[in-house]
Amino acid sequence: MNITVAGVKKEVEDGITVAKLIELENVETPEYVTVTVNDEFVESGSFAETVIKDGDSVEFLYFMGGGR
Amino acid sequence: MIRMYRKDYEKILEHARKEAPVEACGLIAGRTENGDKYIEKVYILTNTDHAEEHFTLDPKEQLAAVKDMRANGLVPLGNWHSHPVSPSRPSDEDKRLAYDSKASYMILSLMDEEPVLNSFHVENNEATKEELVIE
User: Fold this and answer.
1) Coil, strand or helix: which one is B48?
2) Which CATH class, in words, describes the domain spanning A2-62?
């Protein structure tokens, strides 16, 4: 199936989960990445169960914060 | 080297002064060339912590900014935040929460009359100051 990851069209296996896609994309420090699928934020505890569908658009966002 | 336009520096400075004593924050985007970074656009985002000692970028605004960057042919270069009453250097928490080793982390200090902006590369909890050119 075809999906879009960070604006780039890609072909991936059917039924791929968010967790598997994070692994495939070699996302740095995945425990601190926020994921959206079609602009909807995915709960970090649901990455392994969230299945991506054909035509979906996925974004990876790094948590950005700090303090003095 | 990381280059920022003076108008963008003035934009974040004005916002940071307005937000003080709460920390202000945002993103930087542009292009890279031969290892140097050229900031073409700065984004002002909401500090969802609304705190004087912490900041967290609003994820929804972050997503919108990333899409805007892409639409304008820009790449994410890092982020910026203000230190209203502390120096322009990464705190222990700043370093601990700097998860993207490719990003530049810019810190604008307002503690003295003359503001100070520095840019840092942070990797393995170590911060290295980058050469910053404002023009």
Assistant:
1) coil
2) alpha beta
Q: In this structure, what are the phi and psi dihedrals at residue B91, rounded to the nearest 5 degrees?
A: -75, 170
Write the pLDDT tens digit of every residue in A18-54. 999 999 999 878 888 999 999 999 998 999 999 999 9
Place of tokens 């100070």: B116
Measured from the Cβ of residue B10, the count of other Cβ atoms closer than 10 Å reads 11
Of A28, A36, A67, the CB nearest to B54: A67
Tokens 């692994």 locate to A23
Give dist(CA B117, CA B126) in Å, integer: 19
Domains of chain B: 2-134 (3.40.140.10)
pTM over 0.90: yes
Contact by Cβ (8 Å): B77, B104: yes
Residue of B nearest to A7 (CA): B70
Q: Cα–Cα distance between A34 and B80 in angstroms, integer?
A: 19
